[in-house]
Amino acid sequence: MNGFSAIILGAGTGNRMRGIDKILTTICGLPVILHSVDEFLRSGIFETMTVVANANNISKLEHLMSGPQYRTVQVILGGIRRQDSVKNALATTNTADYVMIHDGARPCVSIDLIERAAKATQTSDAAIPVLPVTDTIKRVKDFKVVSTVDRSNLYLTQTPQVFKYSSIAKFHKMFGANVTDDSLLVEMSETDVSTFEGDPENIKITNPIDIEIAETILQRRKNT
Hints:
Number of strands: 12
CATH architecture: Alpha-Beta Complex
Strand content: 25-35%
Oligomer: single chain
CATH class: Alpha Beta
Number of domains: 1
Structural class: alpha/beta
């Protein structure tokens, strides 16, 4: 495979977590973000890894990554917005052919999913994991249902998302609008984004209840 670098984002403020820094919350004996970092390292795919921190947690993350097993991992300060953090990280990974970008708040990422992302680069310069929407979707206005949305072509997006480095770095310089994920920048450039099968266990910790769910998943994997 061509050279891969990883970016793991841990600079978010977690407004829905009632003041808890979710990526430093302990699950199954490890801070949330270490579950992702360790799984990426175990995959053996990545030449380098960049963990993006905020001003409040950077010293703690630097301490967590200070052991010899993290010699290929660097911790940097992110920006105000998600795309600012990614842009900062891309500036440190410019020797890679491909970059994989992952939310540090998704501790249940698996090596299988990481390998699927890497394999997707064989046919695409931009690829994202997706899951089909299974719930009925309603469009609501003023607390009243306006319509029911056809879900047959609707998918949930996850990370890690993988991109040809030269392309995603260019798009981050081209567009300054707020985006919810990096693939949206590719869409804005009218470049194709491919998809691959996501993982229903690859949940994102957004609300306190998600910590309990993630702990159940990770504990089950630990016991098998």
